[in-house]
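#struct-pred

JT: dropping the chains for the assembly here, can someone run the whole complex?
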Amino acid sequence: MTTDRRSRLLAGAALAATLPLGAAAQTELTLWHMEQPPHRVERVQTLLDEFNESHPDIEIRQEPQNWGEVYAKAPAALAAGAGPDLLFAIPDFTPILKGMGALDDVGDFVEELDAEHDFIDAAVEAYSYDDGVWAVPLYNMSMNLWYRPSVLEDAGIDVPETWEDWRSAAEALTTDGTYGMGLPANRQLYTDQTVYSVMTNGGASEIYDEEGSLRFDTPETVGAYAFYDDMLAFSPPDAPSWTWGEAEACFASRACAMILQFSVISTYDTQAEGDPADLGVAAIPSKDGETHNTIAYANAVMLLSRDEEKLEASKTFVRWLLQPENYGRFLNMEPGLFMPVTADGAEADSFWSDPIVETYRDQIETVIENSRNGMLFGFTSGRVFPAIAAISAQNVLAETLQSIAVSGEDPAQAVAAGEARMQDLTD
Amino acid sequence: MRRPPRWNLALGAVLLLLAALVALPFWFVLTGSIKVPAEIIARTPTIVPESFTLQHYAKLLAASDYPVYMLNSLVVATISTAITLILAIPSAYAFFRMSFRGRETLYRAILLAYAFPSIVILIPLFGIFAKLGLIDSRLALVLVNVAFALPFAIWLLRSFFAGIPVEIEEAARLDGGPPFTVLRRIMIPLVAPGIAAVAVFAFVTAWTEYVFASVMILSDAKRTVPVGFSGIIGQYQIDWGLLLAGASLSILPVVILFAFVGRWFVAGLTEGAVK
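RK: done, full complex below.
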């Protein structure tokens, strides 16, 4: 064989070898989320496998992350060019990535999805500011009052509606070795959430006024903090160090008669008696008993890729995920905790046919009902103040409570100091 | 001289208290991992388990990536320990044997590595590693672990070298042994207890390192136990049984290391005492 012929044959073989590769070229995407418990990772993987199989031109792989680290890790990874293409977020995490220029407006895409699935307005509003929408809402969470009907019935107590009822019930249910109410006072996100849940029910939901100035230091806020401090007298002595898990354990072990929590269903079902008839959920009591508000927020997905092909593939995945037959199974990666943000998702068979959801259907319907009055500090009344990210990151709401509950400061002084601290952080 | 009985009693009581302080947390973790969920979360903890189950271990090993995290930790900690020893032994010997200007200053200065809280250098180091293409690699963790373990390892080993009678080394040198041979054949066996102590220190430091592992590693398949495990236990809901089973398994490699190296460590100390 001559050298010339051999060269041509080799060139032909090389060309032939590249053809199948070109035909099978895939767009590879990385998804970061913070749903790390094994059963959630497994559910996400099941869905990704289905998506990848039905979309041979796209391959998505998940990289579960931890909420504890992602605030530092995601900006660092993006700056180093090692970030994900899709990243789950909560409202006060999004401004951090937007602030570093990592996000593009996805308003048109959200509008397209809204036309098809009808998003809950509040879910989209939390991500809409600075003339853009910065993430696509995916799943909702809202805080509720959980109790055991049998315990309340035995004590002859009705489910509390007002702050006065609530305090009396907690006092009556605090007996030897058991506590009427489990409330945290840790400087941590859970306490931010429970404190704000009380604030919203005491007329102190607005941390900013209409002009965007802080209005944290109000008589309503002081009243809410004073009430919360009163209620701590009926909580276990270790409550100041609690996060979500400890509160749930207290409730599941019958040591706490009532707690504030997003959901206790999973733990109650697997670690306590699991009797759906003896698991009660209600709206959080309010000062006057009229309107019951709660803290609620939608988790969302941020589309981070600047590569047109990857961005389009990311959108294809989100479109697929929000289809009711897939969406319900996605929400049920943690049954009873994650609630739909779309109208057709709220009616999806794939959501309601989960065995746990079927068992606790009454409780889940109440949670969805309660979440209609949900709000999040810094994201209220249709206005969004991105500077809230700094306040949230430093847990100033919880820090203010600690000044009262741990250091014994007067609520009025502590709230005034809290506003000054917020001002410092956002100046 | 015989000690008075009340002195023995006091010593025994102190030992018992110490043993309880050290052993009780381990006892609660180990026994908790075999209790059923309701007993684990009971407000009043039971010291002796009233139930028995292996469901938490089964779930941990079958439904999570815990075995992968364990393997990663083993690889990272073992390689970090080996490199720390390979670098620390000649460095410590050099600090002990060689005379050069600024030796004492340099010897003290290496401990400056501990002056910075790791969180302070985390982001700059992330940038450097990103430029070197080391993000999301176990090599990055090995480098960090070695960098943090090495200064103390050198300090510790140098003091062990200093404890060897100078006559032993001089005799070896008189027999014509070059420095490397003297180090390998004479000095290393004599400082074996120190090497064992450094190995345990380096291994445990690498095994428990969290901050860098949490940020430098992006993919689940390369996570080490502390980081992977913190994710497994969840945020809004904690599976307490899973947590206790994972904690129990995570101390196994360290216990095994102590079982092997610790024996050598104690034997070496005893030999030194009678020479």
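JT: nice. The two ends of chain A are 78 Å apart (CA to CA). The interface with chain B takes residues 34, 36-39, 41-42, 62-69, 72-73, 76-77, 79-82, 177, 243-246, 248-250, 252-255, 261-263, 266-267, 270-272, 334, 337 of chain A (CB under 8 Å).
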